[in-house]
Amino acid sequence: MFGKKKQNDHIPSDDDKGLDINGTFSPIKQEFIDEIKKITHSPADLIIKEVTESIVIAFIENLVDKRILEEHLITVVEHTEPITPTELQRILPIPRLKLTEQKKEIIYDMLAGTVIIYIDGYCEVGLANIASIQNRSLSAPENESQVIGSQVGFNESLGTNVSLVRSFIRNPNLCIEEFSVGKQTNTVFSMIYVNSIASEQNIRIVRERINNLNINDLIDSAMLAELIEDNSYSIFPQMLLTERPDRFCDGLLNGKIGIIVNGSSMAILCPTSFLEFFHSREEQNLRWQLATFIRLLRFNAVFLSIYLTPLYVASLTFHYEIIPQPLLVPLSESRAIVPFPPIIEALILELIIELLREAGARLPTKVGQTIGIVGGIVIGTAAVQAGITSNILIIIIALCALASFTTPNYMMGNVIRLLRFPIIFLAGFWGYYGIMLSLCLLIIHLLRQSSLGAPYLSPLYPPRILDWGTAIIRLPIGLLKTRATSNGTFNREVMQEKDKPQRDDVMKE
Amino acid sequence: MKSKASISPPQQINAFLIVAVICSNQVGVGVMGFQQQLYLHAKQDAWISVLVSFILAHLSAIIMIKTLELYQTKDLYEINQDVFGKLIGNFLTILYISYSGSIFFLILKMYIEVINTWVFYNLSPWFLAATLLLLLVYAFLGDFRVIVGVSFFSFVLTFFWLFSLIPPLKYANIDYLLPVFQSDILSILKGTYSMTFTIVGFEIINIIYPFIKDKKNVKRYTHLSLFATLLIYFPILLVSLVYFSGEQLSKTLWATLTMLSVVRLPFVERIDIFMICFGVIIILPNLCLYAWAVYRGINSIVKIRLATFIWPFSGLMFILSFFAKTVTQLDEVNRIFMHVGFIAVFIYPILLYFLALLRRKFRKTQVIQ
């Protein structure tokens, strides 16, 4: 491809400025201290302390638990004065203590909050992990709130999040594999799955995709999801991001694979089908009739939200004849003073709604609410009175916006809102034919997508009627016998006939 | 020779999806106005013609599946090669490809005609052809599974058409059906013959057979799908027979659409306009599946990739769509293709079956010698 380029052209990379950190440290004390300082460019918070004549400890001040450091490390080492690194393991009351010679490992561990315990004359050093990294306390998930059910959300610490998952699933089959990626950031993340349920193939695919990653930095799980999903060019997300531990665990128990990234409060669940983006965890907690109703309402809302405005535009631009006369009168009355064609009118209002939404999302909560009211009422009423838009269109647009907000997943909700714009254009240019084109395009596009190789539209297509009980409606728990096939679960059976909830104790009498 | 290995498991589909594939391939643009031709021949006994044509279709399907079962993993084109030898077999394959290609073209052209007649009088046909062909390309490049998926959604949505048959029933006059058996048998059979272009589509089983996972269920689902198609055509015909008087029906080109235009719902009238645009999703599987038939045919002669086939193919169809301009022209072509379709769907499979049997016998005796 770059045939003209000379082969020995050196492309400068980010690693060039760093120092070589392979190999081992020198067994001489002063050299060791100098080398540590040199590699880390002696930052202000690096502390190197000679505890006794032969023992040196080094750590980053802001990353370690100072109480443990003083009480259980420095005091103990001062009193017992170990002579060999192996002795350290015996005397120190710290559970996460390891010995290593690898310079790279030592440095990276220190940067993660480990204390290096160096004994003069040995290449091997002790690494005592007493990290204490500040993190936000657990709070209710803000983006996926629910009325009934657990009110705890993930925070930004990997350790806390994993412990939350473990508190939901106490099972030796819960597997946790740790990875780190990013040449600059060395971000740690865990891949979590229930070994007895998740499909071997899916686990392998995710592991391979992670191992093939070669990136510079990784800050958030959304970025990781984009990097490992099947088709990152599609507008539809193929991996679910959730901040609810209960939803996350629900996924794991249905054979999905989860990824929690350190520093991100959103966990990844995959494979995810299109319909699952419109599910909310709360439906599992509600009565099944109510849950089914809400779910069907939401599916209809999505369709409405995408197609209502385009239908209005198409009908009023090209197909007046399909509007019944009683409806045509109020429509034309309210449109009589509007100087724009329907497509411009609709686009103006849609843009206003999008602006309001964006302003509301960026401003602090209290101001955001005010903006919503001011924008909605003032601009809406004024626009109609000024004759820029028609009353009926305001109703339609507001309905569409409302419907799009019923999508529980923030990412998918945004996609739904964005999809409307090209469809409005198609409707404004080619009427119902344009709308049908967009519908076909949408169906074909969704059919072509996959999530970890599983069909994205499953269980609608390929039709798996057994799965409809969990995907489209919500069956009562007693009737659910199998897990969804789309997750490729290893063990599909959830409940056998004999395990059904028994109620013959009181009922019989 | 290709073997089973050439179709990988992810490409294969479950047998029950045949219902969607065949049904959506049979229901096409023909459903919008097949009544006129039928009525001209069989008068009020047209419904008997429809029943007869479906019985014939069932018989033909039995023969087709018997032929396919002789070979198990081969499609029509490979059977051609096997029965007639490379040269004649390939010649027949080319004939079949041109049959599929022509049907593809007719469907495309007819749908454009419908849109131009009913919805947009002056939307240029080349634009309609281009958009439909681009949709086709996008679906086609997604491979066979996506094509079946499109058929599936089309199949499900097609059944919504049937609900719009209820309002015209208000104006139904059952006397239009009487007396039964006024037409002689020859007229009824002529009516059946005129149904050919409407009923073709199930011959796609010849091409998709190697892609089916559980082949032992093919028979059941193929017949089920023919029955499902009957469930669509038969009510439409019955309602149009009782809705229109004979005089009207013989003059109405798009009877189904004319009938739909009286439907009046509280928030929509002129449902026909809506339905015609809805037709995009009804004809899309036809286009995809016939294009697939052409692709498999060409593939059996020269190996070719999906993308290298579909772009030139759509380009060719696009250029061809500039010719054949008026409905009358189309009608003549239609009449020719009625004969061609009848041969391809009803006569050729029977011929092929007996020749394949003979070939097999012949080969066995050869082996024994």
UniProtKB/TrEMBL annotation, chain B:
> Which keywords annotate this record?
Germination, Membrane, Transmembrane, Transmembrane helix, Transport
According to its UniProt entry, the protein's GO biological process terms are: spore germination
Q: Which InterPro entries match?
A: Spore_GerAB (IPR004761)
Coarse class of the primary localization is: membrane
Q: Which Pfam families match?
A: Spore_permease (PF03845)
Domain of life where this protein originates: Bacteria
- What topology does the record note for this protein and the membrane? Multi-pass membrane protein
User: What GO CC terms are in its UniProt record?
Assistant: membrane
Q: Which residues cross the membrane?
A: 12-34, 46-66, 87-112, 118-141, 146-166, 193-212, 224-244, 273-294, 306-324, 336-358
The subcellular localization recorded is:
Membrane
Q: What PANTHER family does UniProt report for this protein, alphabetically? A: SPORE GERMINATION PROTEIN A2
The entry assigns this protein to a family as follows:
Belongs to the amino acid-polyamine-organocation (APC) superfamily. Spore germination protein (SGP) (TC 2.A.3.9) family.
- Tell me the protein's name: Spore gernimation protein
